[in-house]
What we know:
- The protein is α+β, with helices and mostly antiparallel strands.
- It has helices at residues 2-21, 25-51, 53-106, 170-183, and strands at 109-119, 125-135, 153-156, 163-166, 190-194.
- The termini are far apart.
Amino acid sequence: MLEYIRNIAIFIIMEGLILNAITNESFKKIVKIFSGMILIIIVLSPLDQIFNITDLINTHFYEWDKKESINEIISSIENSNEGNVANVKKQYENIVFDDVSKVATKEGYQVTSVNVNFDDTKNNYIGSIELSISKEEQTTGSGMVEVVKIGSIKIEDEDSGEVKSSDYNPSIINIKNYIVDQYGVDYSNIVVTTGG
């Protein structure tokens, strides 16, 4: 207790000496404000010894700092994973493009673009594939392009007797079947658009 009173007395004497040395009134006001705050801390220091306020503050600050650090690490991992996942998805899309191009070429088509959509709810499995193809230009001996037009056929539903029109192209069906077999994508999730 005696040390506590001595610390307060020393602080008040030092404050008085500093204030007497300062001639500028506005600067004196600033020094009084800060010295008042320090005096409050000195006066309340016995409470710190009783209630361990400093340890409590340090513990809460440490926990807050730890949470911030963990959040920063998680954020950086997520950002790097997003970049890696995007890169892997692009590489996979290129592989699908090359693979399907081989099959399409056998069927007389040229792949112009492939868009692979991943299903994030199923750990990035392929959700659907959108494929744009065009008829490969084949020249005959005379240098002319031979155009083959496949017409539409009528499909009748056995139960309702309803007639539906459909563009039937066995080459596109073969390409779709290959994608179903190779990549496990549901047939209804494969979209093939033709141009040319």
